[in-house]
Amino acid sequence: MTAPRTATVRRATKESEVLVELGLDGTGSHVIKTGVPFYDHMLAQLAKHGGFDLVIRTVGDVEVDLHHTVEDTALALGQAFREALGDKSGLTRYGSSLIPLDETLVQCSVDLSGRPYLVHVEPVVAPAIGDYDTTLTRHIFESFVAEARVTLHVRVLDGRNAHHVVEAQFKAFARALREACTIDPRAVGVPSTKGSL
Questions:
Q1: For range 147-159, the mean pLDDT
Q2: Is 14 exposed, middle or buried (0-12, 13-18, 19+ CB in 10 A)?
Q3: Strands 53-60 and 132-133, how do they pair?
Q4: Residue span of the structural domain in which 142 resides
Q5: Cα(5)–Cα(12) distance, rounded to whole angstroms?
Q6: Are strands 104-111 and 53-60 parallel, antiparallel or unpaired?
């Protein structure tokens, strides 16, 4: 029987305290409270469409700015994925998706490569969704990639509504990550000719 692919990460700084509990082989259940309602909504998309069980509790200095809270949560989430994946034996490794949301279309590809690299292309949209600064979206992916140590390409192929543009990115990311994290029943060992990822 395969060991459960789970991780618990706690991250504490003078700017925030973050708890992330992750189960890769879940049903999409989630309890998310970061103090940033739109970010909570996006992380719920990640859990639901990725099939990941996810608990996130963040207390950050939102009175200063949302940046620290959003960044530190993404860093802890990336670390949780890296830890839950273990040595990556039997993984599919790669995942891609093409996700529409009304006028928006987003393409996303993930490689659980062990190498952090991000390509992120999106149109200029409204500067804020509520109190969420839309420039944070790229930084969320940068922070996740840095700790998860994955290669991630996110391209918004079409879109103009800021909410749709951001939400479709998270949904596309969720579906691509879900595929990449799936166990391949034909795989033997780590999916790399190097023998490690």
A1: 98
A2: exposed
A3: unpaired
A4: 6-181
A5: 24
A6: unpaired
Within a domain: 61: yes
Question: What domain count does the chain have?
Answer: 1
The model's pTM is: 0.97
In a domain, 27, yes or no: yes
Q: Please give the backbone phi and psi of residue 177, each rounded to the nearest 5 degrees, phi first.
A: -65, -40
In a domain, 161, yes or no: yes
Evaluate whether residue 75 is within a structural domain: yes
Query: How far out from the chain centre does Cα 178 lie?
Result: 10
Q: Confidence class of residue 18 from pLDDT cuts 50, 70 and 90?
A: very high
pLDDT at residue 1 is higher than 60:
no
Can you give the CATH number for the domain in which 88 is found? 3.30.230.40
Q: What is the pLDDT of residue 196?
A: 87
In angstroms, the Cα distances linking 150 to 116, 170, 177, 192 are 5, 16, 10, 14
Task: Kindly tell me if the per-residue pLDDT of 145 is higher than 80.
Answer: yes
